[in-house]
Amino acid sequence: MENEPQFTEKRYYIIIAFVTSLFLLWGVAMTMGDVLNKHFQNVLHISKSRSGLVQFSIFGAYGVMGIPAGLFMKRFGYKRGVQLGLLLYACGAFLFVPASDAESFNFFRIALFILACGLATLETVAHPFMASLGDQRTSDQRINFAQAFNGVGGIIGPLIGSYFILRAEAGHSQDLIAVKHLYIAIGIIIALVGISFSFLKVPANLTDPHTVATDTYAVGKTPQVTKKLFQHKHFVFAVIAQLFNVAAQGGTWAFFINYGHEIVHLTDEKAAYYFSFSLFMMMIGRFAGTLLMRYIAPNRLLAIFALGNIIMCIIVSQAFGWVSFAALIMINFFFSIMFPTIFSLGLKDLGPNTQQGSSFIVMGVVGGALFPPLMGLIANKNVATSYLLPIICYAVIFAFAYSYNSFRKR
Asked: Membrane-spanning residues where (predicted)?
Protein backbone atom coordinates (compact mmCIF):
# COMPACT_ATOMS: atom_id res chain seq x y z
CA MET A 1 0.00 0.00 0.00
CA GLU A 2 1.29 3.44 -0.89
CA ASN A 3 0.31 4.98 2.47
CA GLU A 4 1.62 2.08 4.58
CA PRO A 5 4.16 3.51 7.06
CA GLN A 6 7.73 2.19 6.83
CA PHE A 7 9.56 0.69 9.79
CA THR A 8 12.32 3.32 9.43
CA GLU A 9 14.42 5.18 6.83
CA LYS A 10 17.72 4.13 5.30
CA ARG A 11 19.55 7.13 6.75
CA TYR A 12 18.80 5.89 10.27
CA TYR A 13 20.12 2.31 9.89
CA ILE A 14 23.47 2.88 11.65
CA ILE A 15 21.89 4.93 14.44
CA ILE A 16 19.24 2.25 15.01
CA ALA A 17 21.97 -0.39 15.24
CA PHE A 18 23.76 1.60 17.95
CA VAL A 19 20.61 2.42 19.90
CA THR A 20 19.46 -1.21 19.71
CA SER A 21 22.81 -2.27 21.17
CA LEU A 22 22.00 -0.14 24.24
CA PHE A 23 18.87 -2.22 24.85
CA LEU A 24 21.05 -5.34 24.77
CA LEU A 25 23.63 -3.90 27.18
CA TRP A 26 21.19 -2.97 29.92
CA GLY A 27 19.46 -6.35 29.47
CA VAL A 28 22.75 -8.00 30.46
CA ALA A 29 23.06 -5.83 33.58
CA MET A 30 19.46 -6.40 34.68
CA THR A 31 19.55 -10.19 34.63
CA MET A 32 23.07 -10.34 36.05
CA GLY A 33 21.52 -8.77 39.13
CA ASP A 34 19.32 -11.84 39.59
CA VAL A 35 22.36 -14.14 39.47
CA LEU A 36 24.06 -11.90 42.05
CA ASN A 37 20.94 -12.20 44.20
CA LYS A 38 21.47 -15.96 44.60
CA HIS A 39 25.27 -15.68 44.79
CA PHE A 40 25.08 -13.22 47.67
CA GLN A 41 22.73 -15.60 49.50
CA ASN A 42 25.36 -18.31 49.19
CA VAL A 43 28.55 -16.32 49.78
CA LEU A 44 27.50 -13.49 52.08
CA HIS A 45 24.97 -15.72 53.92
CA ILE A 46 21.99 -13.41 53.71
CA SER A 47 18.27 -14.29 53.63
CA LYS A 48 16.04 -14.19 50.55
CA SER A 49 14.27 -11.08 51.82
CA ARG A 50 17.60 -9.28 52.33
CA SER A 51 18.98 -10.44 48.98
CA GLY A 52 15.88 -8.85 47.45
CA LEU A 53 17.56 -5.54 48.28
CA VAL A 54 19.75 -6.17 45.23
CA GLN A 55 16.68 -5.46 43.11
CA PHE A 56 15.76 -2.59 45.45
CA SER A 57 19.13 -0.97 44.69
CA ILE A 58 18.82 -1.52 40.94
CA PHE A 59 15.22 -0.48 40.43
CA GLY A 60 15.32 2.18 43.13
CA ALA A 61 17.87 4.03 40.98
CA TYR A 62 15.17 4.48 38.36
CA GLY A 63 13.02 6.40 40.82
CA VAL A 64 15.94 8.70 41.59
CA MET A 65 17.39 9.11 38.09
CA GLY A 66 14.30 9.18 35.87
CA ILE A 67 13.55 12.92 36.12
CA PRO A 68 17.20 14.13 36.07
CA ALA A 69 17.89 11.94 33.03
CA GLY A 70 14.87 13.41 31.25
CA LEU A 71 15.96 16.96 32.01
CA PHE A 72 19.51 16.19 30.89
CA MET A 73 18.22 14.71 27.62
CA LYS A 74 16.00 17.73 27.01
CA ARG A 75 18.92 20.10 27.60
CA PHE A 76 21.74 18.25 25.84
CA GLY A 77 19.99 15.87 23.43
CA TYR A 78 19.89 12.14 22.81
CA LYS A 79 23.62 11.64 22.14
CA ARG A 80 24.85 13.26 25.36
CA GLY A 81 22.16 11.40 27.27
CA VAL A 82 23.47 8.08 25.97
CA GLN A 83 27.04 9.03 26.87
CA LEU A 84 26.03 9.97 30.43
CA GLY A 85 24.23 6.64 30.83
CA LEU A 86 27.22 4.63 29.62
CA LEU A 87 29.58 6.59 31.90
CA LEU A 88 27.50 5.80 35.00
CA TYR A 89 27.13 2.16 33.88
CA ALA A 90 30.92 1.76 33.60
CA CYS A 91 31.63 3.56 36.90
CA GLY A 92 29.20 1.29 38.75
CA ALA A 93 30.83 -1.80 37.23
CA PHE A 94 34.32 -0.70 38.29
CA LEU A 95 33.09 -0.09 41.87
CA PHE A 96 32.57 -3.85 42.13
CA VAL A 97 36.34 -4.10 42.65
CA PRO A 98 36.48 -2.36 46.06
CA ALA A 99 33.11 -3.88 47.00
CA SER A 100 34.47 -7.39 46.35
CA ASP A 101 37.64 -6.65 48.31
CA ALA A 102 35.58 -5.41 51.26
CA GLU A 103 33.11 -8.34 50.98
CA SER A 104 30.40 -5.84 51.88
CA PHE A 105 26.80 -6.36 50.76
CA ASN A 106 26.03 -2.68 51.33
CA PHE A 107 29.04 -1.63 49.22
CA PHE A 108 27.74 -3.86 46.42
CA ARG A 109 24.38 -2.17 46.71
CA ILE A 110 26.03 1.25 46.24
CA ALA A 111 27.89 -0.01 43.16
CA LEU A 112 24.67 -1.49 41.77
CA PHE A 113 22.81 1.76 42.45
CA ILE A 114 25.33 3.83 40.47
CA LEU A 115 25.37 1.26 37.67
CA ALA A 116 21.56 1.30 37.61
CA CYS A 117 21.53 5.12 37.43
CA GLY A 118 23.30 4.57 34.13
CA LEU A 119 20.68 2.03 33.07
CA ALA A 120 17.87 4.43 34.01
CA THR A 121 19.49 7.18 31.94
CA LEU A 122 19.87 4.86 28.95
CA GLU A 123 16.24 3.75 29.18
CA THR A 124 14.97 7.31 29.49
CA VAL A 125 16.90 8.33 26.39
CA ALA A 126 16.72 5.21 24.23
CA HIS A 127 12.92 4.81 24.06
CA PRO A 128 12.07 8.27 22.65
CA PHE A 129 15.32 8.10 20.64
CA MET A 130 14.16 4.89 18.95
CA ALA A 131 10.65 6.32 18.52
CA SER A 132 12.12 9.32 16.69
CA LEU A 133 13.83 7.20 14.03
CA GLY A 134 10.87 6.82 11.70
CA ASP A 135 7.12 7.23 11.31
CA GLN A 136 5.12 7.57 14.54
CA ARG A 137 2.65 4.93 13.30
CA THR A 138 5.43 2.32 13.50
CA SER A 139 6.95 3.49 16.79
CA ASP A 140 5.38 0.54 18.68
CA GLN A 141 7.07 -1.83 16.24
CA ARG A 142 10.47 -0.12 16.52
CA ILE A 143 10.45 -0.09 20.30
CA ASN A 144 9.35 -3.74 20.50
CA PHE A 145 12.05 -4.62 17.94
CA ALA A 146 14.73 -2.92 20.05
CA GLN A 147 13.33 -4.50 23.21
CA ALA A 148 13.73 -7.91 21.55
CA PHE A 149 17.48 -7.30 21.72
CA ASN A 150 17.05 -6.32 25.33
CA GLY A 151 15.80 -9.90 25.57
CA VAL A 152 19.02 -11.10 23.93
CA GLY A 153 20.97 -9.24 26.61
CA GLY A 154 18.71 -10.81 29.19
CA ILE A 155 19.70 -14.25 27.89
CA ILE A 156 23.41 -13.42 27.90
CA GLY A 157 23.33 -12.07 31.48
CA PRO A 158 22.43 -15.28 33.35
CA LEU A 159 24.57 -17.37 30.98
CA ILE A 160 27.60 -15.26 31.86
CA GLY A 161 26.63 -15.17 35.52
CA SER A 162 26.03 -18.91 35.82
CA TYR A 163 29.32 -19.77 34.10
CA PHE A 164 31.65 -17.21 35.67
CA ILE A 165 30.01 -16.79 39.08
CA LEU A 166 27.79 -19.70 40.15
CA ARG A 167 30.03 -22.29 38.48
CA ALA A 168 33.04 -20.73 40.16
CA GLU A 169 31.50 -21.20 43.61
CA ALA A 170 32.73 -24.80 43.62
CA GLY A 171 36.32 -23.55 43.45
CA HIS A 172 36.16 -20.63 45.91
CA SER A 173 32.72 -20.45 47.46
CA GLN A 174 33.77 -18.09 50.24
CA ASP A 175 35.09 -15.22 48.13
CA LEU A 176 34.02 -12.84 45.38
CA ILE A 177 36.98 -13.13 42.99
CA ALA A 178 34.81 -14.16 40.02
CA VAL A 179 32.44 -11.23 40.59
CA LYS A 180 35.32 -8.75 40.68
CA HIS A 181 36.98 -10.04 37.50
CA LEU A 182 33.70 -10.23 35.59
CA TYR A 183 32.67 -6.66 36.39
CA ILE A 184 36.09 -5.31 35.47
CA ALA A 185 35.55 -6.83 32.02
CA ILE A 186 32.01 -5.41 31.82
CA GLY A 187 33.25 -1.94 32.80
CA ILE A 188 35.91 -2.00 30.06
CA ILE A 189 33.39 -3.09 27.41
CA ILE A 190 30.91 -0.38 28.37
CA ALA A 191 33.66 2.27 28.33
CA LEU A 192 34.67 1.18 24.81
CA VAL A 193 31.05 1.36 23.62
CA GLY A 194 30.81 4.89 25.05
CA ILE A 195 33.94 5.97 23.18
CA SER A 196 32.62 4.44 19.96
CA PHE A 197 29.25 6.14 20.39
CA SER A 198 30.98 9.53 20.57
CA PHE A 199 31.94 9.15 16.90
CA LEU A 200 28.34 8.52 15.81
CA LYS A 201 26.73 11.41 13.92
CA VAL A 202 23.21 12.06 15.19
CA PRO A 203 21.18 14.68 13.24
CA ALA A 204 20.90 17.83 15.31
CA ASN A 205 17.34 18.45 14.11
CA LEU A 206 16.08 14.95 14.93
CA THR A 207 12.44 15.37 15.93
CA ASP A 208 10.46 12.96 18.04
CA PRO A 209 7.49 11.95 15.84
CA HIS A 210 5.25 11.94 18.89
CA THR A 211 5.36 15.73 18.61
CA VAL A 212 4.28 15.64 14.97
CA ALA A 213 1.62 13.01 14.53
CA THR A 214 0.64 10.96 17.52
CA ASP A 215 -2.16 8.68 16.42
CA THR A 216 -1.11 5.15 15.57
CA TYR A 217 -4.35 4.24 13.89
CA ALA A 218 -5.43 7.34 12.01
CA VAL A 219 -3.21 8.30 9.09
CA GLY A 220 -2.62 12.00 8.73
CA LYS A 221 -4.24 13.00 12.01
CA THR A 222 -2.49 15.90 13.73
CA PRO A 223 -3.93 16.42 17.21
CA GLN A 224 -4.23 19.71 19.00
CA VAL A 225 -1.85 19.58 21.96
CA THR A 226 -3.46 21.75 24.63
CA LYS A 227 -3.31 19.53 27.72
CA LYS A 228 -0.68 19.57 30.40
CA LEU A 229 1.25 16.33 30.88
CA PHE A 230 -0.75 14.94 33.80
CA GLN A 231 -4.05 15.83 32.17
CA HIS A 232 -3.43 12.94 29.77
CA LYS A 233 -5.23 10.14 31.63
CA HIS A 234 -3.74 7.38 29.49
CA PHE A 235 -0.24 8.64 30.35
CA VAL A 236 -0.93 8.66 34.10
CA PHE A 237 -2.32 5.12 33.89
CA ALA A 238 0.75 4.08 31.86
CA VAL A 239 3.08 5.25 34.65
CA ILE A 240 1.04 3.22 37.16
CA ALA A 241 0.93 0.18 34.86
CA GLN A 242 4.68 0.36 34.30
CA LEU A 243 5.31 0.49 38.03
CA PHE A 244 3.29 -2.70 38.56
CA ASN A 245 4.78 -4.33 35.46
CA VAL A 246 8.36 -3.93 36.64
CA ALA A 247 7.34 -4.86 40.19
CA ALA A 248 6.15 -8.22 38.87
CA GLN A 249 9.24 -8.60 36.70
CA GLY A 250 11.65 -7.82 39.54
CA GLY A 251 10.02 -10.28 41.90
CA THR A 252 9.68 -13.05 39.31
CA TRP A 253 13.31 -12.83 38.25
CA ALA A 254 14.75 -12.41 41.75
CA PHE A 255 13.57 -15.83 42.93
CA PHE A 256 13.61 -17.82 39.68
CA ILE A 257 16.83 -19.63 40.64
CA ASN A 258 15.51 -20.28 44.16
CA TYR A 259 12.35 -21.78 42.63
CA GLY A 260 14.35 -24.09 40.35
CA HIS A 261 16.53 -25.19 43.26
CA GLU A 262 13.77 -25.71 45.84
CA ILE A 263 10.85 -26.95 43.73
CA VAL A 264 12.54 -28.84 40.86
CA HIS A 265 15.76 -29.62 42.81
CA LEU A 266 18.17 -28.20 40.26
CA THR A 267 21.62 -26.92 41.11
CA ASP A 268 21.97 -23.15 41.18
CA GLU A 269 24.04 -23.27 37.99
CA LYS A 270 21.46 -25.32 36.08
CA ALA A 271 18.60 -23.18 37.37
CA ALA A 272 20.45 -20.11 36.03
CA TYR A 273 20.69 -21.77 32.61
CA TYR A 274 16.91 -22.31 32.67
CA PHE A 275 16.52 -18.67 33.65
CA SER A 276 18.49 -17.79 30.54
CA PHE A 277 16.19 -20.01 28.48
CA SER A 278 13.14 -18.24 29.94
CA LEU A 279 14.60 -14.96 28.71
CA PHE A 280 15.06 -16.54 25.29
CA MET A 281 11.31 -17.12 25.40
CA MET A 282 10.87 -13.43 26.24
CA MET A 283 12.93 -12.51 23.18
CA ILE A 284 10.76 -14.80 21.03
CA GLY A 285 7.68 -13.13 22.52
CA ARG A 286 8.96 -9.69 21.53
CA PHE A 287 9.66 -10.67 17.95
CA ALA A 288 6.27 -12.39 17.81
CA GLY A 289 4.63 -9.36 19.40
CA THR A 290 6.20 -7.03 16.83
CA LEU A 291 4.65 -9.17 14.11
CA LEU A 292 1.27 -9.58 15.80
CA MET A 293 0.90 -5.81 16.23
CA ARG A 294 0.51 -5.55 12.49
CA TYR A 295 -2.84 -7.31 12.94
CA ILE A 296 -3.85 -6.77 16.58
CA ALA A 297 -3.99 -3.37 18.29
CA PRO A 298 -1.11 -3.10 20.81
CA ASN A 299 -3.40 -2.47 23.80
CA ARG A 300 -5.51 -5.56 22.96
CA LEU A 301 -2.42 -7.74 22.64
CA LEU A 302 -1.19 -6.37 25.96
CA ALA A 303 -4.48 -7.36 27.62
CA ILE A 304 -4.21 -10.90 26.24
CA PHE A 305 -0.64 -11.28 27.50
CA ALA A 306 -1.60 -9.95 30.96
CA LEU A 307 -4.31 -12.61 31.25
CA GLY A 308 -1.78 -15.21 30.15
CA ASN A 309 0.51 -14.30 33.04
CA ILE A 310 -2.29 -14.40 35.60
CA ILE A 311 -2.89 -18.01 34.58
CA MET A 312 0.85 -18.79 34.65
CA CYS A 313 1.25 -17.36 38.16
CA ILE A 314 -1.59 -19.51 39.49
CA ILE A 315 0.10 -22.62 38.06
CA VAL A 316 3.52 -21.61 39.43
CA SER A 317 2.11 -21.06 42.92
CA GLN A 318 0.80 -24.64 43.07
CA ALA A 319 4.33 -26.15 42.92
CA PHE A 320 3.40 -28.91 40.46
CA GLY A 321 7.06 -29.71 39.82
CA TRP A 322 8.12 -29.39 36.19
CA VAL A 323 4.66 -28.28 35.07
CA SER A 324 4.85 -25.26 37.34
CA PHE A 325 8.47 -24.64 36.38
CA ALA A 326 7.43 -24.59 32.71
CA ALA A 327 4.75 -22.03 33.62
CA LEU A 328 7.44 -19.95 35.35
CA ILE A 329 9.45 -20.01 32.12
CA MET A 330 6.36 -18.97 30.14
CA ILE A 331 5.82 -15.94 32.38
CA ASN A 332 8.76 -14.36 30.58
CA PHE A 333 7.16 -15.07 27.19
CA PHE A 334 4.10 -13.08 28.25
CA PHE A 335 6.32 -10.43 29.88
CA SER A 336 7.84 -9.81 26.46
CA ILE A 337 5.73 -6.98 25.06
CA MET A 338 4.65 -5.43 28.35
CA PHE A 339 7.40 -2.93 29.08
CA PRO A 340 7.84 -1.51 25.55
CA THR A 341 4.11 -1.51 24.78
CA ILE A 342 3.13 0.26 27.99
CA PHE A 343 5.93 2.74 27.30
CA SER A 344 4.87 3.44 23.73
CA LEU A 345 1.14 3.63 24.52
CA GLY A 346 1.83 6.04 27.35
CA LEU A 347 3.70 8.44 25.04
CA LYS A 348 0.88 8.78 22.51
CA ASP A 349 -0.55 12.29 22.06
CA LEU A 350 1.88 13.95 24.49
CA GLY A 351 3.28 16.31 21.86
CA PRO A 352 6.07 18.52 23.25
CA ASN A 353 5.68 16.79 26.63
CA THR A 354 6.96 13.49 25.20
CA GLN A 355 10.50 13.65 26.61
CA GLN A 356 9.25 14.63 30.06
CA GLY A 357 6.63 11.89 29.84
CA SER A 358 9.36 9.38 29.00
CA SER A 359 11.25 10.21 32.18
CA PHE A 360 8.13 9.69 34.33
CA ILE A 361 7.39 6.32 32.72
CA VAL A 362 10.99 5.29 33.37
CA MET A 363 10.48 6.33 37.00
CA GLY A 364 7.70 3.74 37.11
CA VAL A 365 10.46 1.15 36.98
CA VAL A 366 10.98 1.86 40.69
CA GLY A 367 8.24 -0.73 41.15
CA GLY A 368 10.95 -3.35 40.72
CA ALA A 369 12.44 -2.15 44.01
CA LEU A 370 9.23 -2.85 45.92
CA PHE A 371 8.19 -6.41 45.13
CA PRO A 372 11.41 -8.47 45.57
CA PRO A 373 11.72 -7.75 49.32
CA LEU A 374 7.98 -8.39 49.77
CA MET A 375 8.11 -11.61 47.77
CA GLY A 376 11.26 -12.53 49.68
CA LEU A 377 9.37 -12.41 52.99
CA ILE A 378 6.91 -14.97 51.62
CA ALA A 379 9.64 -16.94 49.81
CA ASN A 380 11.52 -17.37 53.10
CA LYS A 381 8.67 -19.73 54.01
CA ASN A 382 7.43 -20.92 50.58
CA VAL A 383 8.90 -19.70 47.30
CA ALA A 384 5.99 -21.08 45.25
CA THR A 385 3.34 -19.21 47.25
CA SER A 386 5.21 -15.94 46.73
CA TYR A 387 4.30 -16.07 43.03
CA LEU A 388 0.66 -15.30 43.86
CA LEU A 389 1.71 -11.71 44.63
CA PRO A 390 2.43 -10.66 40.99
CA ILE A 391 -1.17 -11.47 40.02
CA ILE A 392 -2.09 -8.07 41.48
CA CYS A 393 0.32 -6.47 39.01
CA TYR A 394 -1.08 -8.24 35.97
CA ALA A 395 -4.61 -7.26 36.95
CA VAL A 396 -3.52 -3.59 36.89
CA ILE A 397 -1.84 -4.06 33.49
CA PHE A 398 -4.96 -5.73 32.10
CA ALA A 399 -7.10 -2.83 33.37
CA PHE A 400 -4.75 -0.33 31.66
CA ALA A 401 -4.81 -2.20 28.36
CA TYR A 402 -8.57 -2.85 28.41
CA SER A 403 -9.50 0.77 29.20
CA TYR A 404 -6.71 2.40 27.15
CA ASN A 405 -8.82 3.79 24.29
CA SER A 406 -11.42 5.32 26.59
CA PHE A 407 -8.73 6.95 28.77
CA ARG A 408 -6.92 8.27 25.70
CA LYS A 409 -10.05 10.06 24.45
CA ARG A 410 -10.46 11.98 27.71
From this structure: 12-33, 53-72, 84-100, 106-126, 147-166, 181-200, 235-259, 271-289, 301-320, 326-347, 359-378, 384-404
